[in-house]
Fold this sequence. Notes:
By secondary structure, the chain is of the alpha+beta class.
Amino acid sequence: MSTDLAEKEREFIAALAEDTGRDLPGWMAAIGETGLTQRNDIIDWLRHQGFQFQWASWLERIHHNDGQLIYADTGGQMRTTNRQPSPRNAVRDAARDARSDATEEPPARARPFRDWKPQPPPPPVAPTPPPVIGDPIQNLLSDAKGLRPLAEHVLREVGRAVPATEFAATATFVMMSAPTPFAALHAGPKKLRLYANFGPAGVNRSIPAEPANKSAPPFREMLVLDDVRNVDEDFQRLIRAAAAR
């Protein structure tokens, strides 16, 4: 039986390079480069490289035996390893190692890699740049003075109603497009004018558009907003209707 264990261990190690692309010294060096020292951490890392648990566990044993085989040149007896128990978990580690040393056998060659390939890391997500001082939209919103928080809230709610909305500063208006322009906001210190073609949806709420700072209105109708309560579910309904026209 002991001869069989030593032979299984030798076969497993001899096949590593062909089966995994890296021989035993290569895997020992790779484990060392991780900086991991705890048994479970090393096994987890090896499993993420594609090893099944049995093979990952045996490589961890050899690594903690200074890279030496467990059964080689021992007359078939298991070699005592140099594994040091975790200081915080010495009792638990000793009990676990005693169980595993008594029951685990070296794995035979059976293609130690699972039918799994490490996935490439996802592409980095570019951070959202902070607002640039002097941004044209921010300059337009500053004209609202005390109503500026309401103006910012209006733009957020438009974005919620039509997620594809793009905002741009055009003359005195914040133009909203998805991708065709469908609404425009004029921010004044006493009231906000939201211009759009609401059609039948706005019959009970919109009024004919009027000029803003002598600029011709960009759409035929408008909403006058001077209170956050104006920005309600019906407001979102009107925005969606305008974007759909």
